[in-house]
Design a protein that fits this description.
Order of helices and strands: EHEEEEEEEHHHEHEEEEEHEEHEHEEEEH
Radius of gyration: 20 Å
Structural class: alpha+beta
Helix content: 25-40%
Number of strands: 21
Distance between the termini: 37 Å
Oligomer: single chain
Length: 413
């Protein structure tokens, strides 16, 4: 089933329709999930209500219903969660909305009705009419001292031969005003930034704060695992410069190129643990692409998988994503636990959805996490930002990279 949107189909127009429909669902009292950018061959995937529940890694993105759409996340630290949508709306490049899922076409299905109403609303309104603007957040300045100490420690570990590189993360913090609805604020915050920055793998999950499951608003530019049947690709990002510098500067940087190539080797190893022998291939190496506030180096590795490999088994073999750990992976993870003063939470994990034998996940970077403080009951907002460290890194240079990556999240538009 499909329905036609307005006639103009620019990327910005398509994004606006998706974020307006998302905002309308929240304003109407629903708990929607949204994937916006490039997902499952569409520009947006939208569910009216997703009840996220905690689940073990072995059960993630599994459902007895083969037609179900399952939205969820696996955090770098903590417990993952997922939830099933009875139907979804899919926004195509030509502006057409399609519907899919077991509840599609059922006039008595409230989620199908809610999606139809939100799409109709989005044709004649903007998200600013659906939800008030998010109250500006007062972010802290981040823990520069600990981050720079971690960079120094990493360089010493590289010199000692313990690791070749790591990705060191830091966290920024804010608190929501007591009068603000967490879901409405997160939806408005997410929608405005997606519209402004057009991230490639944006994702919104409604969370369940009373159950300890955060609301996630992700502006990620990075693919983690993109699976269609037995084919899978992983596209790590390593190498960053601010957007106001010439993009070809990345390819002239020995540090950034070395970062990327080492992580490509790690991705090949991760996929090789579960792929059919001889099928792991590097299909794109060192492509320079824009992302919000920066230029990045991207590479892509592909593989063929055994027929019966589950989504959870694939994720387990490759998790955490190579680009947010280091080489060798296990030792890098151990050292990062020592060097980083706070758990990463969802940051550097994975967010996305599964539908049948298709799975698409981003790397949960440039992501805001809304969670309820168990002591005060207030809602805090946190954002993790990280970067790869090699022997050529400097503490000052790495903090400047942190600030460039953080700007789209922390600065008011």
């Amino acid at each position: 089933m499909s329905t036609r949107s307005a006639s103009s189909d620019s990327a910005a127009d398509l994004t606006s329709r998706a974020t307006t429909a998302l905002a309308r669902l929240i304003a109407a009292g629903h708990r929607p999930a949204a994937l916006i950018g490039s997902w499952f061959g569409y520009r947006a995937v939208l569910a009216a209500n997703v009840e996220l529940t905690a689940c073990e890694s072995a059960a993630l993105f599994t459902s007895p219903d083969p037609d179900a759409w399952i939205f969820g996340f696996r955090p770098y630290s903590g417990t993952g969660a997922h939830g099933v949508a009875t139907c979804v709306a899919l926004l195509a490049d030509d502006g057409t909305w399609h519907f899919d899922g077991p509840g599609t076409g059922d006039p008595f299905n409230p989620d199908f009705q809610a999606l139809q109403a939100a799409i109709t609303y989005s044709r004649e309104n903007t998200r600013d009419n659906a939800l008030p603007a998010a109250t500006p957040l007062e972010w802290d300045q981040g823990d520069r001292e600990h981050h720079q100490l971690a960079v120094t420690n990493c360089k010493e570990a590289i010199a000692a031969g313990e690791v070749y590189q790591t990705c060191i993360s830091t966290r920024f913090h804010a608190e929501l005003a007591a009068s603000d609805s967490a879901l409405a604020h997160a939806g408005a915050w997410f929608s405005s930034r997606v519209a402004q920055y057009q991230p490639a793998r944006a994702a919104f999950l409604p969370g369940n704060l009373d159950a300890g499951i955060p609301i996630l608003a992700s502006l990620s530019p990075e693919e983690f695992l993109i699976r269609a049947g037995t084919s899978v690709t992983e596209t790590p990002i390593k190498g960053t410069i601010p957007a106001d510098r010439p993009p070809n500067e990345l390819l002239r940087s020995d540090k950034d190129v070395a970062e990327n190539i080492m992580i490509v080797d790690l991705v090949r190893h991760d996929l090789g643990q579960v792929a059919k022998t001889g099928t792991v291939k590097v299909t794109d190496l060192l492509s320079v692409r824009p992302a919000p506030g920066v230029w990045h180096l991207f590479s892509t590795v592909s593989a063929e998988l055994p027929d019966q490999l589950s989504h959870a088994e694939l994720i387990e073999a490759c998790f955490p994503p190579a680009s947010v750990t280091g080489t060798p992976k296990l030792r890098a993870i151990e050292l990062l636990h020592e060097w980083e003063p706070e758990p990463r939470g969802a940051h550097c994990g994975a967010i996305g959805a599964a539908h049948g034998d298709a799975l698409e996940l981003n790397v949960a970077i440039r992501t805001a996490e809304y969670a309820k403080d168990p002591n005060s009951g207030r809602v805090r907002v946190e954002a993790g930002i990280g970067g790869g460290i090699t022997i050529g890194s400097t503490p000052e240079g790495e903090w400047a990279e942190i600030e460039a990556k953080a700007a789209p999240l922390l600065l008011e538009s």
